[in-house]
Structure formats: C-alpha cells, structure tokens
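User: Show me an example of a complex going from sequences to structure tokens.

Assistant: Sure. Here are the input components:
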Amino acid sequence: MIKKYSNATLSEVVDALCEESSYQAVYHMPEHDWPMPSLEVLNEVVERLRSVLFPGYFGNSEIRPETMSYHIGGSLDVVYRLLVEQIMRGRCFFCDGEKQECGKCEEEARELATQFLATLPEIRRLLATDVRAAYVGDPASKSPGETIFCYPSITALTHHRIAHELYKLGVDLIPRIIGEMAHSKTGIDIHPGATIGEHFFIDHGTGTVIGETCVIGRNVRLYQGVTLGAKSFPEDESGKLIKGIARHPIVEDDVTVYSGATILGRVTIGKGATVGGNVWVTGDVEPGARITQQK
Amino acid sequence: MIKKYSNATLSEVVDALCEESSYQAVYHMPEHDWPMPSLEVLNEVVERLRSVLFPGYFGNSEIRPETMSYHIGGSLDVVYRLLVEQIMRGRCFFCDGEKQECGKCEEEARELATQFLATLPEIRRLLATDVRAAYVGDPASKSPGETIFCYPSITALTHHRIAHELYKLGVDLIPRIIGEMAHSKTGIDIHPGATIGEHFFIDHGTGTVIGETCVIGRNVRLYQGVTLGAKSFPEDESGKLIKGIARHPIVEDDVTVYSGATILGRVTIGKGATVGGNVWVTGDVEPGARITQQK
Amino acid sequence: MIKKYSNATLSEVVDALCEESSYQAVYHMPEHDWPMPSLEVLNEVVERLRSVLFPGYFGNSEIRPETMSYHIGGSLDVVYRLLVEQIMRGRCFFCDGEKQECGKCEEEARELATQFLATLPEIRRLLATDVRAAYVGDPASKSPGETIFCYPSITALTHHRIAHELYKLGVDLIPRIIGEMAHSKTGIDIHPGATIGEHFFIDHGTGTVIGETCVIGRNVRLYQGVTLGAKSFPEDESGKLIKGIARHPIVEDDVTVYSGATILGRVTIGKGATVGGNVWVTGDVEPGARITQQK
Amino acid sequence: MIKKYSNATLSEVVDALCEESSYQAVYHMPEHDWPMPSLEVLNEVVERLRSVLFPGYFGNSEIRPETMSYHIGGSLDVVYRLLVEQIMRGRCFFCDGEKQECGKCEEEARELATQFLATLPEIRRLLATDVRAAYVGDPASKSPGETIFCYPSITALTHHRIAHELYKLGVDLIPRIIGEMAHSKTGIDIHPGATIGEHFFIDHGTGTVIGETCVIGRNVRLYQGVTLGAKSFPEDESGKLIKGIARHPIVEDDVTVYSGATILGRVTIGKGATVGGNVWVTGDVEPGARITQQK
Amino acid sequence: MIKKYSNATLSEVVDALCEESSYQAVYHMPEHDWPMPSLEVLNEVVERLRSVLFPGYFGNSEIRPETMSYHIGGSLDVVYRLLVEQIMRGRCFFCDGEKQECGKCEEEARELATQFLATLPEIRRLLATDVRAAYVGDPASKSPGETIFCYPSITALTHHRIAHELYKLGVDLIPRIIGEMAHSKTGIDIHPGATIGEHFFIDHGTGTVIGETCVIGRNVRLYQGVTLGAKSFPEDESGKLIKGIARHPIVEDDVTVYSGATILGRVTIGKGATVGGNVWVTGDVEPGARITQQK
Amino acid sequence: MIKKYSNATLSEVVDALCEESSYQAVYHMPEHDWPMPSLEVLNEVVERLRSVLFPGYFGNSEIRPETMSYHIGGSLDVVYRLLVEQIMRGRCFFCDGEKQECGKCEEEARELATQFLATLPEIRRLLATDVRAAYVGDPASKSPGETIFCYPSITALTHHRIAHELYKLGVDLIPRIIGEMAHSKTGIDIHPGATIGEHFFIDHGTGTVIGETCVIGRNVRLYQGVTLGAKSFPEDESGKLIKGIARHPIVEDDVTVYSGATILGRVTIGKGATVGGNVWVTGDVEPGARITQQK
C-alpha cells in the first residue's frame, strides 16, 4: 500500500485553488461570522415537527393522550431553539451588514420562530385534509394512516406547509432548504411560495413541479410529472430577470391534472376542470372543461 | 445567545395541539400497543437480503464459496427475527382488535416469515434474469456486475421482488414501505402488487410508475417517465372508490415502452409491441405494433 | 416473544442459495481479492471535494482566506489517498487478471489520482459559470450563493464535472457510481461520459436524462423531464449491442429545452434553438429554430 | 491484499465451538426467548435519569422552569417504557420457567417500574446532599455545580442511588449492570445492595469498593482505594458459600476513611471515627477513635 | 407488549420534580443562556490535539512531512474555534453576571485560546521527554512509539499537559473536565493544577492521585496506587475550607515512588529519594533516602 | 459569534510544530506505508470473539444451537480478515524494512491468524473455568451467567486469554493494545505475556497489576489493588534495561491474595498460601502459609 504522490502537484493545486481569482465566485464568507444553515439541524427540526403533527406515527411511536403534552411540549421547545439559530443563519447569509445591528436580528428571529409555532395547529388541520384526500383518492390505499406513514404526497406536503408558513413570515433561505429536502426524497418540487388549499393530493408525484407564485384551490389532485410553471421571464430594461412577479398558474377548486401535463404562465384552470396526461396548456381553461391530448 | 420566548405562546400551542379535535384524524394509537413498523429495521432487512441475493457485491464484499453458507445463514436468521416483528407491527397497524387474539397473530407472523424465506431462491433467479436484461439492453454498461452495483433498475427490482412476495403472502403495510424506499431512492414507483415477469429492465427510470394490478410479461423494457396507470376509478353506490379491482395495463412479452409514454386502464399491450415516447395510450395495442406520437 | 421457526426451512433455503447454479450469475469474486468500491468512502470523497470547490458553503463553514490552504490541502491529501484505493477497487472489479500485474495497477491508480487533482481548478471554474447560469436563469433565486447551497442543478453538476474528469482519465466504475449518487439525490441522470460546456443550468431537473455520448455547448438550459437519449442501438453481426459509438444528441450553444421534451439519436440542435415542452425530436433542428408541440 | 486461509481450519474451529460439550457452560438460551438486557438501552435510561435529576447540567442544557415539566415528563415516559422491558429481560435471565406465567411477569415489571419512578424525588434529595458534601469536602472544588458536572463521586452515587432503589424493589440483574457501568467509568465499585446515608462523598475514588451488605450512615467521607469488604465467606454443610448474609462493615455517621484503608467483616466503625490511610481493620472501632498505620 | 401505567403516578412524580424546592440545589440555569460545556466537543478537541502532538500515531495515520502543515494547520484552526466556545461556556458557568459584559468575555476567550495554541510546541517537547521516560523505564516496552500508542501514562500526561496550560491561563472548568476524561480512561487522577517536570512516568497507573498544588521535578517515576495528597484542610474562622493554599507534596528530581505509597501534606521528597510500596509518608524525606514499609 | 484570531499566531505555531526538530521524536512514519493498528477494528475483533466465546450473552442474543454454526462461522470469517490486516499493521509498526519482503510478511500474518483461530476452543474452555471460579467465589453472585455478563474479572480474562495466545504466537503490538482495552475498562492491568492457569478469579479488580513474566497456577484468587510486579530491573553494561528476563512472581495453585497486597520479584508463592491485604512481599512464601500485615 505504497501511496506516494508528487507533493509538487498537490501544493500547486492547493495554491491554484487558494488564489482569490479562483475562489471569489464560489466562496462564502458571511459578514457576521455565522455559519451556513445546517441541513442536519433542519432535518431534525422537520422530523420533530412531523412527530408533533402526526403523534404516534413518527418519533415516539407509543405516545398516549395522557402524556401527549409532555412529548409535544418538549419537542416544540427544542424546535424553537434550533429554529431561532437557523433563522439567524439564513438571515445572515443574505445580510449586507448595513441595514441593522445583529442584536435586533436575533430579536426578530425569536419573534419569527414564535409566530411560526403559532401556525402549527392550522398546519395540522390542513394536513389532516390532505390525508383524507390521499385516502379517498387512491384505490390502492387501505387506511388514512397508511398514507401518513408511506405516501410521498403527505411527506411533500408536510414539508411544504411548514416551509410555506416560514416563507410567508419572510424567513430567508430556510423555507427553500426544507422544500428541497422533500424534492430530493420524493421527486416532488414545490416552491415554498406556492399557495395550496386544503384537501390536496399528488399521486406518485415524481417529477411534479409547482412554481413559486402558483395559487391552488381546494380539493385539487395532481399526478406525477405535472408542471405548473412559468411561460416566460420578463426582463427589465437592463436585461435582468424581474423577480417576484406572478408568473405561474391559478388552479381553482376540484381540478384534476393527469401525469405529464404541462401548464405554463399566469393562466387560470377553472373550477372542476380536468387536464389530461401529457397535455401542454398555455392558456386559460374553462371551469368544468376536459382538455386531452389530440391523437 | 439569549433565546427566550413567550412561554405563554408555547403552552397555548401545546394545548391546542393536544385537544382531541386537533389530533384525532392524525394520531395513531394501536389497539395492542405495538409500535409502528421501523423504517430503520426494514432498511436493515432489505440490505441484508441484498447481500444474500448478490453475495460479494453488497455487505461483506469478500465472501468466498467455502464460507458462503455461514454468512447467508447468519443473515437470514437475523432477517427472520426482524421480519417477524415487523410483520406483527404491520398487522397490528390495521388490526381492529376484534377478529383474533394476539397470540395467534404472532404464530401467523412466524409462518409468513418462514414462507417468505422459502421464496428467496426464486427471487434471486428472477433478479439474475433482470441483471442480464440490463446488461444486454444498455450499450453503456460494461459488465453484468456493473448493473448489479450501480443501476437503479436493479435496485428497484430487488425491492419490488421482495415486496411482491410479501404482498402475495398477505403481509400488511411492509411491502408498501419497501416499495416506497426504492421509489425515494430511484424515482421508480412500482406498487408491490404488480406482477412482473423475468428479464425486466427500466432504463434511467426516474418517474416511471407501475400500478398495483399491472401484469407484465417476460423480456419487457421500459424507460424513464413511463406510466402504467389506471384510467378511472369505479365508485360503489355510495360514491366510494371500489378498491382492489383490476384497473392497470397488461403488458405482454417482449414489449418496449419509451420514455414519457402513458398507458392507462386495463388494456393489453400485445406481445412484441413498441410504444413510442410521450405517447398516450388508453386502448389495446396489437401484438408487434409500433405506436408513436403524431407530429 | 417466542420466535421459533422451522430450522429445516432455514437450512434448506441456505443450501439452495449456496448452490453454484443459484449464485453464479449474481456472485462477485474478484481476481485479486480487492473488495468492491465503497459507496461510503466515495461519498466522503465527493463531500470533501464539494467543500474544496465551494469553500465556506460546505464542510467547515467558517473558513477564512488566511487559513484556506490548510483546509484545502488537508482535504485534498485525504481525497488523494481515498481515491487511489477506490480507483484500484474499480479497476480490479473489471480485471480479468491477465493483462498486467497488480503492482503496476497501483502505480497507475496513483498517477490517475494525481492527474485528477490537477483538474480541480478547471472544475471549479466551470462550476462558477454554472452557478452564474442558475442565478440569472431562475427568477426565484435570490443570490448566486443560494443556488450553490440549495439547487439540484449545482449538486448534479458538481458530481458530473468530477465524474467526467475521472471518466476521461479512464477510471473504471467510480465515475458511474458518482453519477448515480447525484441521480438518486436529484433525479437528474447524467452519464459521466457526457461533455457539457460552461454556463449550464437544469431547472428543477427531476427526470432529466443526458446520455453517454452527448455533446452540450455553452449556455444551454434544460428543464425537468428532458431526455437527451439514443434512438436505436446498432447491433453487431452476432446481435450484440455495439458499445461506445456516438448515439446521443449534440446540443449547440444557447439552446433551451423545455420540460418533458425528448431528443433522440445523434442529431444536432443548432445554436440558439428552442425545443418546447413534451416535444419529440429525432432529427436535426436548425440554429435559432423554435420547435413546439402541435395542438 | 490476498487474504486466503485454510478453509479446513475454519470449519474445524467452528465445528469444535458448536459442540455442546464446548458451549454448554458459556451459552445463554433463555426459557422464554427474551434477549439479554441491553447495555445501550440501560445507558440511555441512566442518562435520561441523570438529566431529570440534574436539570440543565445534563441532557438538554437550556431547560427553563416554565418548560421543565415537558422535558421531565417526556423523559420519564420514555424511561418507564424502556425500563419495563429491561426489567422483564433481567427477570427472564434468571427465570427457571416454572414459577409463573410470562403474562404475570410483565404486569409485575410495570408495577416495579412505576414504583421506581416514585422514588425519584427522594433520590434527587439524597444526591443534593451528596453534592453539598463534595463541595464542602474538597478544597479544590469551586462550586457545587462543578461537582455535579465533573466529580466521579457524583457520577458513582447517581448510578448507585438509582441501582439501590431497583435492588430494593427486587429487580434482577439490572441494578448490578448499572453499578458496573459506574465502576468501569469511575473505578468506584459500589454493590447496589449497599445502604448509604445522605451527605456522602468519595474523593478521587479509584479502587474504592463497598460491599453488598454495607450500611453507611450520614456524612461519611471515603478516599480512593478504600475497601469495605467481607472477611470470610461462611459455607454451608455442602461447602457452598452461603449467599446473602450480612458480612460487610457498618459505618456510622461522620466517619472518615483515608485512602487505601481496608475494613473487613461485619464490624462497626463508630460515629465520628477516623481510619487512616492503608490501615487494615477487621474489628470494631470505637466512636470518635482515630486509627492509623503504625510506623 | 401492553405497557400501560398509572398516569396519575407519572404526573405526580413530574410535579414533585418540578417544584422549586426539589430542583433548586441541582438545577443549572446560567445567567447568559450559554449551555454547559460539551464533553463531546472537548473530546474532539483533545483528540485533534493528540493528532497534532503525535503526528502519524493518531488521527490521520498516514501523514507525511510534506503535507504535515496542512493537517496540523487545519486541525488547529478547528481546535481554536471549538475551544473559544467551550472557554466561554466554562466562564459563563461560574459567571455571576455582575463583573463584566459578555462581549468582553468573548474577546478574552479568543485571547485565551490564542495563548493556549502558542504553548503547544512546549507541550510537545515535554511529552517527548515523557515518552523517553516510559520507554527507558519499562522493561516490557519495545519502542518509544509503543508507549505513545498504548501506555496509560502517555494518555494521562497528554491530557494533563494540555489541561495544565489551560489552568495556568485561568480557563474555568475546562481543565478539570479534560483531567477527568483521562481519570476515567486510565484510572490516573491528576489535578490540572499540578506542576510536573519533564521526563515523567507513571507505570500501570490505576489509582494514582496527584493533587492540585503538587510540584514534581524532573525524571520522577510513580507506580500505580500512589497518592500525593493533602493531609488536612485548614478552615477559616467560619469553618469553611480555605481553598487554594499549598497543601500537597513537593517531589524533587529523580524520585521514585512505588505502588500504593501515600504521601500527604506540603512535605518535600528530596532529590533522588525512593519511597517503597504501601508506605505512608507525612513528613519530609531526605534527598537520596530509601523509605520502606516495616515488616 | 465573532471568532477571529491572530492569523500570525496560528501560522507561527504550525511552523514550529512542523520543524523536524520538534516532531522527530513523536512522529510515526512507517517504512511501508501501513497505517497504525485501528483501535476501532480491534474492538470489533474482541467484541466478535466475545460473542463467539459466550454465545447468547453477547452479540446476537437470540442464538440457537441449530443456527449457531452460521453465526460463529460468519463472525470468525470476519475476525480472520480483520485480524490479518491488524497483525500486518502491528508488524509494520516495528519493521526496520531490512529483514524481509512485505509479501512474506502478509503470508505470515495469514498463518498467524489461522493459528490463533485454532486456539479458540481452548480459550473458551479456560474461560468456562474462570466463570465457575467467579460464581463459586463471590457470595454476591446469583448465577454463572451473571458473572459472564457483568463481572470485570471475566471481561479482563476474555481480553487476556485472547491477547496471551496472540502474544505466544509472536504477534506485535496487538496483544498489548487488547490488554490495555481491558485495563481502561476494568482497571485490571494484565500484561499479555502473563501465564494464567484455569479457574482464575479477580474480585472487584480495580488497580490489580499482573506483570509480563508472571506464572499463575490453577484456582488462584486475587482481589482489587494487588500487584504482582518486578522488584528491580537489571541493566546491561551500558546501563540499559535488559528486557524480557523473568522478573515477576510465580503464584502456585490455590493461592489467595487479598486487596492491596504487593508481591515483587521472581519469588514463589507456594501452593495454597494466603497473602493478606496491604501486605508487601519480596521473598518466597511457603506452601499453605498465611502472610498478614503486622499491626
């Protein structure tokens, strides 16, 4: 096992990589010395929230009503502390160091985490409707509990509904990270900015994309490979993309979109409409209409 | 690092989450105090089975014929024990506590695990044909061994052929969990109920979906983004989905389905047929036919 | 917890699995007793390289210019050692034991690892252009750093640009493993043989496939579910696939391919062309052309 | 790395080790298939109890009075469940399978765990006096908190006071295991049967031994290397040791025993006595006496 | 596995443990919300320092002179950062919140960590003499390297020489923790305050105790079970121990103390003296004298 | 969390530590690039051997006679492979690179590991007598199994009897490491060279030392703090210790040595003798004699 190599090469490579011209575009040095957000800690945050939202399914799987408050209280106290630090890290990541002092920053992070905790009962209420939607919408499911424990749709929506509340509170970076965790695990890519009504179900889900400014109503069902995307990206006079404008579809209540369909731009899919598989839609769809691929 | 927050808020949130009206739809309390199946243990079960099915590729990578029986025997003895407990947990998950006593339940779990072990030689025989199919079907592969070690198709089929045998034995929940593990890892979503013949290959695979009642023949090849799904879900008189009826395609021997194609309903794709990319099929296809997208 | 089972069954199963006829097609016994490459070690290699390529974003997130050379030098020294062993394992995996002695094999592995290290500054330069492409190409992104830390496109390209250099050096098996790691995590399947120019971006990415002999120019943008695949696989006279011939598309500079599009065969998509969503292309596309699905 | 060896040797060794005559004296096969107690789980039990007994010093180190009940309640609920199973395992270890049914055994384990929990306030009260004793008794200590966090004496007494309550309840094997954990970590060997009054301190502690039937009063201080042992072991008529009779010293209140002293047999060290270093004592010591080594 | 218990009991125990009268003497709530020092992090600090002090023996065991600066530099940069935080935690542990602001506290912690790093070359120089002493002093040792890798004496002295420098700098709590780590592992209890000259060796070591104000010369050898302790603890007028006064032995150069010997008080063991096994010494010993146990 | 420090200091410290004069006495660079033995791997080796020697007590705690050969065979196959590499590392540690080629070195390591495996039945036979000795010798023990699972004596002897066989085979360094593992865990320090007869028991054990050339007969019992050491270390003409000569006691059958006793030099403690606590012995003791401390 003689593993020698040219030390000259190594030091040359190190020198090349440590030249400022090499690293300047890919190096992160925050203004205030906070490290990057931790994927490991954020994963713990989401796992603890999952155990709080679905008691008995995740985390301590033998929780009983009489002791539920101990477990939920303890988990949320930990979540609060972890989240405050991650919120500060996310904020520091974008900080230009000019607007405000760090002390105020911490105070705001505490306020944001507190406000987030207060949304948990509503997050759980929405997820309970999503569980119902998954159970009644899939002939292969045997019980609502099975969808909680196994279905990618519930995994993706648990992440999304958490991330969306953080997004609405203006938390930086963290919502996106939480969304990408679910994307990696389920293949479902929901931008944390998307607004999604209750009783939502994505069957199978791999490859489905829901863009930042989507507005989805109640009782909507999607399948795998569906894109709710932007059609074009308006640029400003200097040729830079204008960020943040509404550019993704509005999907009204009771709509179904089958696998592989692509809906682009700020179009409206009317209440109760059905969009067939592999169909390409760039205009409005009437309420109750059925759009299918021509053959 | 002063991380105080309003304790009032925390206790209010905890109280809200511990009200029965909040948790009743998302809380799991089994009849007989068995915890939920453990994803970690089931992962160990699958990893041990993988090392048994493909000796030398996984697990102890220096196994020799003379000592093979020690390693395989030891692994299967552990698998047996772990599986008995997981089968009981899965069964308890759906148990309404009325049909039978727990003692009988354990006896049956042991019987199921024993029967499952007996299917391993056949599972390996089928996987060996899948390895062959991946090697001969992909110009980029350099040896059959490379497909065993690297290809998502073999990963997904190892999970599926294990899950399918458990499904056929009537094991609850566990087959679905094993299927979703592969779905998360490979983007290939095969319902454990699907019947798949030998010499099967899915190239790339991300986004491919194979439904519960599919019947796939020998020597079939699929690509990424293929859907073998249901067309409609018959409801009973009360409007509830009728579960369990045959609703997915029959794909006969020697069929190839290219990427993004969607085949829906209990249709038959005849022997030797080819379905082109992005094509949408909801009717039978003649043996030997070539269906392509119109342009 | 009485978990007995028929010992007869276990020993029968073990005996069946240890028969040569059962295991011969799925058993790996290398000529020279090197174990299989280790996914765990290769993951460490990639994570260390990621921290070297993007200092401060990954690994030690508090790195400063003054101490950068310590961290980068230390990481690369470890990477070198780990990589030499994995290269030898990959080589041994395909070795027929006839061509050469093992000693020479190790010498070559050291040489290959050294040559690989020397490509890192160029890998980083290319990735910096990819980061730029992701930032300017996505209206939802708030800073280049966010794309480094969160975007599947950058994850996939980091893996690919590493794997591609190893592939060009003729390293066996390892490039494919590194590519599949990214495939599993992001749903983006890029064969390590693919040649990809600078300033490349894949938005969302799940289900996108880029084949072994693809040649992609500068400033190309793809979306999710895009296939750059082979159309047919020429066979030799004996009916075996001819491996290694150019069979995937050439995509010239400034091309955009929207979600779900499929481009097959050694066709050329001309400079500046746009291929619409779900479109199926099997012929050349003129420079500047816009191909869309007929409706 | 050619690592072959004579397979004949291996199988011969295995065969020899699997002969009943070889393994019968060193093989454990319980009557009722419960596994051995788990050192890992018992370590978790003790760590959780330590965090409950000394809130803020161990476990979650940022606990506040307002949320203390969540953390303590959650930890004790977990401890209860883990302990019930370990108590059953310990009981099964000694079970001859004749006395009673397993069902009753579980009921009793639950009862024992419940009774143990009820002793925690008293265990904490005693430990608080031990902390005080360590602080006032060691000129090198700077605060009571330092003794909680760093001193082997407090570690050993935390284990002992837990183990002793379990011992008094008649729990099998588990108290001994908890005692040996502390022995391994601190070098202090206290048998769980020993009765120890409040305000107890062992300085340094390595090598100190306190036997099963010792009775130690209040405000006693020992040093390292002290033995409170048995002098002789009475045998019954058949020559077997008579187990369980009082055979270790009684040490009354306010006694100090210096390092290396050995006190053997059911002798009484009277109130306020001092036993010098390396002294050998096998008879009673008067209250207030000072025994030292002759020189 | 029916594991119910009286919920009444649990809540009563929790309530009892959450009463202020129960927890006040054993609860840690720091003034400024810094958590307790982390044993895990301090262990990492010591392990990294060990790999820096003995390159090639610990940590990366294939370090070469050409790349040594990368590894040592990287490790020390990490050690610095970890140590600053642990120093602050230790300081906060004793802080009464009155003397100064936290900001100044952090500045001082950085200064202390910087000063500590500067002592490492001297720590290594001393340890190199200890290695020599262990090798020449033990007929069973085969090479100096063996003593570095295996001998408790070197382990204990590595911890001690690190802890002693931190102690001299006035770092709170951390030195004691590092000393107790070695105590637990080796059974050798050296207070971080003890001053120990070069070329020091403790053979076997279990049970040896070296007190806070000991002053040990060059070339001293101890055996297991040796106590260099305090004889009496002067109290102030109020009966409280006076902390910090010189109360342990001075051991001059070239002294040997055999196993089990006890030397108490501020006595001087003169240059070249030998103290026999199990001997009890409470007065000065002449240079060159041989003290043995009377028989 | 602003953690800056003088970079000048760091680089100065690094430079000082990387000067050859600083590191030369404490740096390990093997001749043939084998790394140091791995404590982690050796711990796995011992744990696997423990599970083989005491089936059902350690490792897989539900082993049954019918499947015992699978578990024992699998474990020993792994132990063999791990041990061959560790033996080579240990050998390389002392290698001066002159005597022989590495290839031969590996062959010999394989031979040594094979020979070691063949001693396992005898090791187990001896340990079974030690278990018996612990059970009958301690009134506090309730069953032989309890001593296997809990007693430091059995832990230390398991390590010793393994280490001693490796020592007799001439394996370098590894036996010492295995001995020190037990020393750290139990406080019992037995040199792997010591010869110990069957039916041996050390009660409590902390601080007991047994030297390299000790010869201990059958049915011997020691207590804590006993030293069986060397009296003087003969030097050669150049003043260097002569290594390897017989210098520790011979303890004949049926001897008991009580706590704290010290026996030094190549003396003989005759059959059936009893040495009292804290006694100091440097001459022969008659068979059947009772030596006690004078008072």
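The lines above are the inputs; the final block is the predicted structure for all six components together. The longest helix of chain D spans residues 68-94.
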